[in-house]
Amino acid sequence: MTAMTATAAATSSVSPKNMAVLTQLLEARTGQQIASYRSWRIDTALKPLMRDRGLATLDQLVSRLLGGHDLPLADQIVDALVNGETSFFREATVFDSILAAVTEVEAQGCRARIWSAGCSTGQEPLSLAMLFAERREETGAPIPEIVATDVSETALSRARAGRFSQFEVQRGLPIRRAMRWFEPEPQGDWIASSDLVRQVVFRPLNLVSPHWPPGRFDVILCRNVLLYLSAEGKAGVFSRLAAALKPDGLLVLGAGETVIGQTSAFEPSRRLRGFYELAVPVPGAK
Amino acid sequence: MKTCLVVDDSKVIRKVARHILETLNFTVSEAADGREALNHCMASPPDVVLLDWNMPVMNGMDFLRALRESALPGRPKVVFCTTENGMAHIRAAIEAGADEYVMKPFDRETLESKLQIVGLA
To answer: A171 CB near a chain B CB, below 8 Å?
Structure first.
């Protein structure tokens, strides 16, 4: 089967009517869109919900959603469709740069504030917590304030519990760090130490809603989140990210993301490669 | 190309690991026990050894100790890959000179991640 035929066959498993209902729900709740190349995931992602309810087809699930009597269903569908892909120390060199950025902030006598926006099940903020907790052990330097947000309450519950499967704990996490900061359970999950989890403030937040964490941040990580938003949604989030960043702050996007052509609020950082900073306003420009 | 020696008494595990490693651009060789692996390392040291724990003839820990005590030039990385997933086993492996530890069952992402951590992927 050619790639094109395979894609078409996979896409056709979700009818246009069901696709429209599900995409509208996801976009209304999160601002995220389902790109056509991700549509093949819908069936797979929703299968557990169908199984739990004894439903055989996606049509039945969508009918139940539209019936409006199964109140938790909409939230559960959104949770299942949001891409929660993450891992510990994802793109490891980013963390070295964040360490350097935080050190610069601290040199001015301030405690740094970091925001992990779209933290999913918590691997990113917990990686930051590990990094700075280890630094505290070595140098006595304080751990920055780490705020982590996600649109999915289910993902946040898992993050707060600090519970990770054996597969999750092995992705990106060196074994010495796993031994230092996690305890294995007999069933195979690994539990993050409460000392570590306590370093992160987890909060529900929809990036496309007007309610954002208070205050401004020295570093904002918003990696592999904006790529699922519409151009309009992206522009709005960029503008609010700019408002949430301190004047010398840094924005971190995913490896395949850029601000170029997306917003005029940010420009590539001159201090740290791969990071972004607030654009210097051009005199006279509107 | 980087080289990896897969040491496991299970032919199936060796086949699965070989398939993953070849997609990660490794040249792969195999050994079914620690003794065979040690002979291979003496003749042709790999960049990394993916090492099972429980094997006949010579187990993974005995192999690792012998490897680290040998006068082998260079220092092949050793990544344990085992069903021995308790903290005591992990600690013993690290103390004996293992660089990383993969808990079975594993998948491509896990293996790739661990090889990145030891600087080889």
So the answer is: yes
